[in-house]
Amino acid sequence: MAIKSILVPFDDSAASRAALDTAYMVAQSQAAHIEIFHVRADSKESIPLLGEGFSGAMIEEMIEAADQESGERSSRAQRYYEEFCKANDVAAVETGPASGAASVWWREEVGREDQLVALRGRRTDLIVVGRPAAAMDQSAFMTLHAAIFETARPVLLTPAAKPDSIGRKIAIAWNGSMQAARAVSSALPFLTQADDVHIAAIETERSEMRFRGHELGDHLAWHGVETEGVEPIAKGKNVGEALLEMCAANGIDLSIHFIHRGVA
After folding, report:
1. 3-state DSSP call for residue 202?
2. d(CA 262, CA 252)
3. 59-68, 112-121, 161-170: segment of lowest average pLDDT
4. Angle CA(151)–CA(152)–CA(157) in degrees, nearest 5?
5. Rounded distance, CA 111 to CA 99, Å?
6. Whole-prediction pTM value?
7. Which of 74, 149, 152, 182 has the most neighbouring CB atoms within 10 Å?
8. Distance from C-alpha of 77 to C-alpha of 86, rounded to nearest angstrom
9. How far apart, in whole angstroms, are the C-alpha atoms of residue 261 and residue 170?
10. How far apart are CA 220 and CA 226, in angstroms?
């Protein structure tokens, strides 16, 4: 199944701009529609109305200041969206792709971003989220968490800046679990267009009886995906470091991971 709808939570931060740029690269290759989703904070919920020590006038002043800041952020975000459409000559279409080409639409709602992304994300093919900066506020991490764990949809976590390419050389982190299988299935639109696909077979106590890496390669071959062999990651080795080394050695521009709350 091709990717036809992409959701990008957007707040005009550098991370969300990189996410939009990356999402557009995907949309061009898949003739997909991007919904740029801006959530405007509800100032009445964002202000700690503790009562004690705050007069009515002080609370009203805090709400007014929060409204102004939220409005300015929304204006900046929408202005960037308009500049993005103009710079890329991309059609703004509310309901779907325009004539088989990439298209975009701006949607704005009021509330908590993580809650609204969790709901809206369930009605899209892919969610593209900018990588949270270390100093980013907690709401960005809550939105990423909601996208990963509360939508049942694949999430593309983008780098800090727009990559030169995406999906040409892919690495799959595989341990035979159902979470890994779901990740591979969700990534088929990328895998079928890739030039090179590498498999990292992660060996754990619970993965020994699961499909081996070469069996995943056999399965992917039915979809026209040729793999470049299997690189085993032995038990006891730091999986993250091993995956990063493999990606660097092979010029990987997209890594497919599985994330779950349990133990692999």
Report:
1. strand
2. 27
3. 59-68
4. 75
5. 33
6. 0.87
7. 74
8. 14
9. 24
10. 7
Closest CA to 31 of 91, 108, 107, 117: 91
185: Cβ–Cβ under 8 A, 6 or more apart, which residues? none
Q: How many of the other CB atoms lie within 10 Å of CB of 191? A: 21
Which amino acid is residue 236, in one-letter code? G
Rounded to 5, what percent of the chain is helix, strand, coil?
40, 20, 40
Is the pLDDT confidence value at 107 over 90? Answer: yes
Predicted confidence band of residue 263 (pLDDT cuts 50, 70, 90) = very low
Distance CA 197, CA 229 (A): 8
Per residue in 201-253, pLDDT (tens digit) is: 877 666 555 667 788 999 999 999 999 888 888 777 788 888 889 999 999 99
Tokens found for residue 4: 């036809």
Q: Look at residue 129 in the predicted model and tell me its pLDDT.
A: 96
Rounded CA gap, 181 and 202, in Å? Answer: 13
93: exposed, middle or buried (Cβ count in 10 Å: 0-12, 13-18, 19+): middle
Return the bridge partners of 196, or none: 169
Distance CA 179, CA 170 (A): 18
